[in-house]
Amino acid sequence: MTNKPALVDPGVLMLDLAGLELTQDEHALLRDPQVGGVILFARNVASVPQVQALNAAIRACNPALLIAVDQEGGRVQRLRDGYTRLPPMRVFAAQWERDHELAEDRAHECGWLMAAEMLSAGFDFSFAPVLDLDAGVSAVIGDRAFGREPEQVTALAGAFMRGMREAGMATTGKHFPGHGSVSADSHTDIPVDSRPLALIREQDLRPFAACAPYMDAVMPAHVIYEQADSRCAGFSPFWLQAVLRGELGFEGVIFSDDLAMAGAATAGGIEARVDAALDAGCDMVLVCNDRDMALAALAHLHARQQPASPRLSRMRRRDNPARETLLASARWTRARAMIDALGGKG
């Protein structure tokens, strides 16, 4: 029997793809040692066989790559046709008000179902779940959140993450230390949270602290918490080193949010954004939906001679279920029926 060669650690740049198949240029790009991951969007998904084939082609091109997707539920799910339409997480918050145990059980099964389906499609992980509190002011968070209260979000998100891990998928808590109390959308603006640091610790930070045992990764927010630091959280040694690593004792992966977003512009051009994220403590930087910017980031990483982060290998899938076997299982049938009965599919 021959042993498979050990995979090298992924590079530190995650980028996106143009369409439904790899182009010749993308084949070459994905072999670059500084490229460590690919994230798929809705434009990359046409059917069940197509996305499986695309992910297989990515792995054949470079087996070290991590393949990710945003499959939270509700408004944020890239794979729809042929996959379970997941409800927004607010659905579990409403149930939790009536029956804590039942809501947690259902959130757990939803996390398992999402993860199992994405693993069967060839992904390593989904950037989920949201640990933000729904303070009623953030349209970009809103019904993506598990609730308003830290205890509620902790219970439901924790159950969702345990379900993901049971399926064999690593978890990502976002958007640290909490995006729910700013009205601006960091995709298009530069949000500033003016609340006292003590209040953020008392409210928003608590789900991240309590769920730390189930978090394999964290994605910080492109939000400036001006009472704590003039830099957004993803560029802040205070938030990533002093609080996340130091106070919370988090030892997992830190992903930047997309550095092409408007909320990242406070650091300057893409080279400065890459420097700010990595110097603050991010293990991998995302640059999406702007190929020129991604190529500039890649060139800068080569100039930095940026070493790979050994933490990133923890995000690899731990199971690879066959879709046919998954869909024939009694657990998938029960979980799918439970999700369908919830309504609010998004």
Characterize this entry briefly:
The chain has about 350 residues and is an alpha/beta fold. Helices cover about 40% and strands about 10% of the residues.
Question: How would you sum up this structure, described in words?
Answer:
By secondary structure, this protein is an alpha/beta fold. It has one domain: Alpha-Beta Barrel (TIM Barrel). It is 39% helix and 12% strand. It is built from 12 helices and 12 strands. The strands form 3 sheets. Strands 6-3-2-1-12-11-9-7 form an 8-stranded parallel β-sheet. Helix 3 (90-98) runs antiparallel to helix 4 (100-120), helix 4 (100-120) runs parallel beside helix 5 (150-167) and helix 4 packs across helix 12. The longest helix is centred in the N-terminal third of the chain and has 21 residues, at 100-120. The chain starts with 12 loop residues before the first strand and ends with a helix.
C-alpha termini separation: 48 Å
Instruction: Please give the domain count.
Output: 1
- The counted number of beta strands is 12
List low-pLDDT spans. Answer: none
Proportion in helices: 25-40%
Query: What's the helix-strand series?
Result: EHEHEEEHHEHEEHHEEHEHEHHH
Can you tell me the CATH architecture?
Alpha-Beta Barrel
The description of the largest β-sheet is:
8 strands, parallel
Oligomer: single chain
Provide the residue-averaged pLDDT.
94
CATH H-tier superfamily: Glycoside hydrolase, family 3, N-terminal domain
- Per the CATH scheme, the topology name is TIM Barrel
Estimated radius of gyration: 19 Å
Structural class: alpha/beta
- CATH classification, class level: Alpha Beta
Total helix count?
Answer: 12
From the spread of the alpha carbons, the general shape counts as globular
Strand order of the largest sheet: 6-3-2-1-12-11-9-7
**In what range is the share of β-strand residues?**
5-15%
